[in-house]
Amino acid sequence: MIIPYQQLDTDTLNNLIEHYVLREGTDYGDQEFSTETKVEHVKAQLKSGEAVIVFSQLHESVNIVSKAQFQAMRAEEYPQYE
User: Fold this and answer.
1) Residue 49 φ/ψ region, left for φ over 0, alpha for ψ in the -120 to 50 degree band, beta for the rest
2) Which of 12, 30, 35, 69 has the fewest CB atoms lying closer than 10 Å?
3) How many CB atoms lie under 10 A from the CB of residue 58?
């Protein structure tokens, strides 16, 4: 289920994004960026629709994924709709 970022409290959204960018494995390539810059980058992706916030009822978790990743996950779970 997609959670519109606009429906989240500002502090909740910022904490979610910060947790996401601080996770191990979040790679921005050869160039180093500050946490604040990474957070702003993810916010921009959410605003543009390139990324979405997804709630998994199965795993009882929230994650930020690219729109393409979400579509691939949906196709795996519900191939009859593709």
Assistant:
1) left
2) 30
3) 6
Position 32 scores a pLDDT of: 78
Could you tell me the strand order of the sheet in which 61-66 lies?
2-3, 51-56, 61-66
Per-residue pLDDT of 19-68, as tens digits, reads 999 886 555 566 778 889 889 999 999 999 999 999 988 888 899 999 99
**Does this model's pTM top 0.85?**
no
Instruction: Give the C-alpha distances (Å, rounded to integers) separating 77 from 47, 53, 56.
Output: 26, 17, 12
Q: Tokens representing 33?
A: 């960026």
